[in-house]
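User: Need the bound-state model for zinc ion:
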Amino acid sequence: MQLRYNYRAYPDATQRRALASAFGCARVVWNDCLRDRKGAHAVGLPYVKSADLSRLRITHAKRTEERAWLADVSAVVLQQSLRDLDTAYQNFFDSLKGKRHGRKVGPPRYKSKKDTRQSIRLTTNAFSLQGDGTLYVAKVGNLKVKWSRRLPAAPTSLTVTKDSSGRYFLSFVVDTEPDIFPELDTDTGIDLGLSAFAVLSDGTKISAPRFLRRAEKKLKRLQRELSRKAKGSKNRAKARIKVARQHAQVADRRRDFHHKASTQIIRDSQAVYVEDLAVSGLGRTRLAKSVHDAGWSAFVGMLEYKAVRYGRTFAKVDRAFPSSQVCSACGFRDGPKPLHIREWTCAECGTVHDRDHNAARNVLFEGRRIVAAGRAETLNACGAPVRRARVPAQRGEAGSPRKGQQTQTGIPGF
Ligand SMILES: [Zn+2]
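Assistant: Bound-state model below.
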């Protein structure tokens, strides 16, 4: 399987300029090629082939006065940008044809200089690890890197990104063998909630750590301050950077928390079941803010790839399954419960239920049933895009099943 290893890089002023122009060139190639394809589509012409775009928008373009500066950056960066566009189109087409489960993918969009995340992708012929601990990147130079942990093997590709708070990251893709944990006879159902971050079927409650909530509070304050600054003023620009930094910190801390919680759950249980939440649906409701803050989909994505990596079973329970309405003791369906009802008594058997704990137990039973019935195969492959590795890892590893390999490998006996 493929794992991502992320490190922080510290380019000097010259290297920062070289990277800025690489980001810019990659963006221009992407936008030029996208425009050609959109244009062809608008007048009913066939999809423009990559080979044609590569010739016209990269090789020929470099010889024109208008795009001569494309020659200043590594050709690999430009080619990869076109490849990424191809992938974006492929995902869109697969989504249209229903080949891709889960959330609908829209057509590729134009990139902007103002995008919060700028990136370039490189293959092995455009970067190399140096003996002195620096990383050579073609046409950029030797970057200073903070190697927070060892790379387990030679990387196959590298993405260099710059985030909105001006930090640079290197993300290496490394091919590794799964690292199967010793087998256990425990399994866990998880209810993702708003009062606690997650409740497990054994009654364990996982709440967001206090430092994360504090960081979120500070972010809100900084955002308020930003909104009070006059548009276009220097103070506004300063406030914006402060907000971006705080955003980055909240995101990092939340990711760390998700990594710790997901690793713990995967380590402790042989099978993990979770409700397949319609997060995109909830995102439009009044609960939107807290839903996005909780970052459920990133967390579920981590559970999924860690299950593959460590040889655990993972299944998503259908979102139509009424986990909060059914009594987990006797199976009686007690009817819908508004969100504010945290505790209820079963009208049939009289068991007093904590809403979330009961839901987690129901997810556990439903998950077991699905896996026993062999239906996990389809459910499991659901919504697992191949390059799920977008989940960036700070300390833990983010990984993704390799292209074509589906997550059901996590289910022994399938
Ligand atoms: Zn009951």
